[in-house]
Fold this sequence. Notes:
single chain
Amino acid sequence: MIFxxxxxxxxxxxxxxxxxAIALVIGEGVVLLIFKMFCPLxxxxxxxxxxxxxxxxxxxxxxxxxxxxxxFTTIFLVGVIxxxxxxxxxx
Length: 91
């Protein structure tokens, strides 16, 4: 979804799906805030694993799992800024 938002802004193909994607990512952020920046599924998976690695429940490199919130939040914010810029420019 995050890359769709960036694509929509860059290609100037902003439609209702763009706004739904933005709302869903914001909703995911609210869930992370409620669970103190942990995915609720990770908290559930911790009960069944004794691994302390950041990527024990996801198939991405450990460095990316450690910094995924920062990396993908930055990409999301850039995408939203581009989308808003396009909307204001075309208004």
